């Protein structure tokens, strides 16, 4: 993506009024815009939650200086992030950190071989945060560490790139936003579609009224996951500091199908697939729907319809969110999940549909979009591929030049909250009434308690205020 998408460094307007139109000529004119002109225009679609770093933060890392990064959690997806950031010419990876020594050693070897410089290897993130030479951290830990690590990093004066979802629960998410603002740190969430120019273009079409007024947005997660089996607790391997890995979460016995990657299916550490792959699609759905607050009502059904294993989250889930808009109007966001499906939906494993009063837009997170008018008339389309490095570059540009973030922590919190509310509503099996201002469930004590979580008593990483 060209830097012109954000080169003016301005905060974008929070509300952009939809123009009801199906003017084919207008759509065709948009298609003919030069890429640079289009990207300048498309910046206006990004929501008001985008945050530009303050002038006081500019100069902390000079324009010609390297950003010194600590990579926290360089296993699995984190290793891919490490490869991307290490390849940036203005980045120096000076720490790799993981309680699994095999992951830390592999990451350190990669950095040394690819850059010629040997990073420090640590298993405790406090060593990284205590080092004043570290400018920023990349957090790709399991979900239960995302918010605690981000808050600690902000308090230590580090900028943060944190993987999605940005929190394990709703309360943690709000505390993370507050920490970022209080310490004036750049905090980018890893919903990388926010930096994809074809997704930005689709959002611009919606804002300009290409399908009329969008009243319903749908997100789906249809793919075939694996059965993780049923196992009994065993001793953790010697290369893993399991106590450190569990961190502030309540301690549970180690079992072989918990680490690595499958932790996301356990309630103490993950958020299910709605918070894993689903939150990407939910984030795009919320963006296209044009809502910058929480829903007022949530209804859900789901459970384990297919897998007979140790997973603790639904493999099948249907969640409906309702938003009360100004003037008494309402909008709806729908999430569908089937992680046992050997087929795709609307041509995409993970995708979105935006239903407007004069048409619809179908979008594939990784592939492009199609714009339809009345009676399914195909009016425009675009094929593309997601390049996650553009999102990483946006984070670095925000640190060095005060450029607006594409996925600021506030936006990440709003979308992660939808995943958390979906899980809560599915678990209790009834409609939730949610107060967007207090971020609390109304008149439902059982569901209200799930806005937070239990922690291991006295642990040093428990966020203040939980």
Summarize the structure in short.
This protein has 466 residues and is of the alpha/beta class. The protein is built from 14 helices and 16 strands. α2 packs across α8, α3 packs parallel to α4 and α11 packs across α13.
Describe this structure in words.
With 466 residues, the protein is of the alpha/beta class. The chain has 2 domains: 67-193 and 389-408, Rossmann fold; 196-384 and 415-449, 2-Layer Sandwich (Dihydrodipicolinate Reductase, domain 2). It is 31% helix and 20% strand. It contains 14 helices and 16 strands. It has helices at residues 24-32, 35-42, 77-86, 101-115, 125-130, 143-155, 170-182, 197-207, 242-246, 272-276, 278-289, 389-401, 409-428, 445-449; strands at 67-72, 91-97, 120-122, 136-139, 159-162, 187-189, 214-222, 297-303, 316-324, 330-338, 350-356, 359-364, 368-372, 378-383, 432-435, 440-441. The strands form 2 sheets. The chain has a 10-stranded mixed β-sheet. Strands 3-2-1-4-5-6 form a 6-stranded parallel β-sheet, with helices on both faces. Helix 2 (35-42) crosses helix 8, helix 3 runs parallel beside helix 4 and helix 8 runs parallel beside helix 11. It is globular, with a radius of gyration of 22 Å. The two termini are 39 Å apart.
């Amino acid at each position: 993506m060209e830097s012109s998408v954000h080169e003016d460094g301005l905060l974008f307007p929070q509300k952009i009024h939809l123009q009801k139109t199906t003017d084919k000529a207008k759509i065709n004119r948009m298609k003919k815009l030069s890429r640079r002109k289009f990207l300048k225009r498309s910046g206006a679609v990004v929501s008001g939650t985008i945050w530009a770093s303050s002038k006081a933060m500019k100069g902390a890392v000079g324009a010609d200086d390297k950003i010194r990064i600590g990579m926290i959690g360089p296993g699995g997806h984190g290793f891919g992030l490490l490869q991307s950031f290490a390849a940036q010419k203005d980045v120096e990876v000076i720490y790799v950190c993981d309680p699994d020594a095999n992951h830390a050693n592999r990451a350190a070897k990669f950095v040394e071989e690819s850059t010629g410089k040997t990073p420090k290897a640590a298993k405790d993130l406090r060593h990284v945060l205590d080092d004043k030479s570290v400018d920023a951290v990349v957090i790709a830990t399991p979900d239960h560490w995302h918010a605690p690590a981000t808050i600690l990093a902000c308090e230590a004066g580090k900028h943060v790139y944190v993987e999605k979802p940005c929190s394990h629960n709703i309360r943690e998410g709000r505390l993370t936003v507050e920490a970022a603002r209080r310490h004036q740190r750049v905090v980018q969430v890893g919903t990388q579609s926010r930096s994809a120019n074809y997704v930005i273009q689709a959002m611009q079409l919606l804002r300009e009224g290409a399908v009329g007024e969008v009243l319903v947005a749908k997100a789906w997660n249809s793919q075939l996951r694996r059965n993780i089996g049923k196992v009994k607790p065993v001793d953790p391997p010697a290369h893993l500091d399991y106590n450190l890995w569990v961190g502030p979460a309540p301690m549970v016995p180690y079992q072989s199908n918990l680490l690595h990657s499958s932790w996301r299916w356990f309630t103490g550490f993950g958020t299910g697939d709605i918070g894993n792959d689903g939150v990407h699609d939910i984030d795009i759905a919320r963006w296209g729907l044009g809502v910058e607050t929480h829903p007022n009502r949530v209804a859900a059904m789901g459970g384990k319809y297919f897998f007979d294993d140790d997973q603790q989250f639904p493999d099948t889930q249907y969640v409906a969110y309702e938003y009360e808009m100004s003037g008494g109007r309402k909008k709806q966001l729908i999430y569908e999940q089937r992680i046992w499906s050997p087929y795709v939906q609307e041509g995409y494993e993970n995708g979105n549909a935006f239903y407007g009063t004069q048409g619809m837009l179908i979008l594939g997170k990784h592939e492009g979009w199609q714009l339809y008018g009345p009676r399914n008339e195909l009016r425009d389309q675009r094929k593309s591929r997601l390049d996650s490095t553009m999102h990483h570059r946006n984070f670095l540009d925000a640190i060095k030049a005060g450029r607006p973030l594409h996925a600021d922590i506030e936006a990440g919190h709003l979308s992660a909250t939808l995943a958390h509310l979906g899980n809560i509503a599915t678990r209790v099996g009834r409609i939730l009434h949610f107060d967007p201002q207090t971020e609390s469930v109304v008149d439902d004590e059982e569901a209200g308690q799930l806005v937070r979580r239990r922690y291991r008593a006295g642990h040093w990483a428990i966020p203040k205020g939980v």
